[in-house]
């Protein structure tokens, strides 16, 4: 796509030079080795077919004097006159019926809908007249009509102008349904549709009209057509098959490029024809890659993707290494708000994949450097561990205009968390940490300060949320981010308590970490200098709290959890309804999966640790 934008200047020059006469074939051939837009491909296809066959004509709203709502019919009125390029009133049922009747009489009409959403006004003519007449006449009367226009989501045109009708029409016997992606598809498929003896639904995409694509000399030939019913493998691969049509083919090609960088070889199948669907090409690809993902803008239930899944299951069940997957639009009418519209469609999220992986990888590297410093008892060893990683992240994000205040605040939170982690690990090397008769503050670090570290621990999770908001050019939702911070803190504290309990049940009753020194109760040799963590080697705040602050620490943590749960409920109540329902649904799923109860329950370890330890002493 980047290359196409770089070459768009040539296509723009071509469009400026054409005047009112449409794209002349000779001029088009001059640019055969560069690019033409989908709009120009459709325009030249109709131009050449109208010149080739006098029975071909076009009709629809604003197709003549205005030259089409999207300028697809540009120059055709001047070349072929008002009898063959006919403006119609705003009555889809009426002019569609005229088109169907003309096809019955031996003409080849092209009926343009300004958007396929308006075809709902004419669906009786399309389904009950055009699609069924060959059957009802015992094959005596054909209906060579093309219904074409913009289909699917555009930008900010809301619920009644953004529907994808692919699955609607592809379910109707008697119709052929085509969905082009690039200029070659648009030119070759439209020519084939005009020449076909059956009614054809031709689903274009408004967003693609202005996109330039490279074409060959063969595509520019007047007799070039793309066979109806034949898919095209756009990119060969061996690990997974991505199947799509229309605009989503571009998304799949981008995804394949990014997956290749991750060592995954993706094959991309451009359906081109939705009915009759090319079952053989799909099945052959799935048998080769053993995995399949379908991508479409339409709704999930009973969509085109469901048909792809059926083919994969019926024809390739024994060849599958993983369940087939669908990527679809959301099960909602298209919202008008920009952020909700983006959330309702398959998102070009993979375009951000490398950046997000880089940021997360740098944070993990910084975390490892800090854990290494912590394992030395908190010593920094000169400089701040991980600072070079965070500075690299900041530099990259700043260069892309993504270092927002929210992102910067979370990077700073990470530094504060790691500093607290190193201080706690340094205190782990002292024995006893709290002198007899002393208090928690005697060690230079209060329990409240230590608990505050848990609020910073999930900074990376919040940072990625801020970054995604910035990438989508949206303002962060403060309520959601506040909720996430409290929710993640609850998860971290709860996990630390459960991990500590697992240590004891495993017989690790004397070590508060992996050889970190000292007992869990705050006494012992305390030699320090080892990695702080349990059996998994992860940093566990509870082990530090117990060792440093004594046996009252778990009770303090439980009190903190109670306060956090109350705050969590407050924040949940002010979230938008959709987000609140999602959180509540995830809570129930987590409980069903055994990941935890909906509310925190004080474990026996905290109620009476001595009794809990005696239970496992034998």
From TrEMBL:
InterPro entries linked: PDHB_mito-type (IPR027110), THDP-binding (IPR029061), Transketo_C/PFOR_II (IPR009014), Transketolase-like_Pyr-bd (IPR005475), Transketolase_C (IPR033248)
Native species: Micractinium conductrix
SMART domains per UniProt: Transket_pyr (SM00861)
The protein, known as: pyruvate dehydrogenase (acetyl-transferring)
Cofactor(s), by name: thiamine diphosphate
One Pfam entry name: Transketolase_C
Stretches with biased composition (Gly residues): 514-531
Boundaries of every Transketolase-like pyrimidine-binding domain copy: 36-211
Any single Gene Ontology cellular-component annotation: mitochondrion
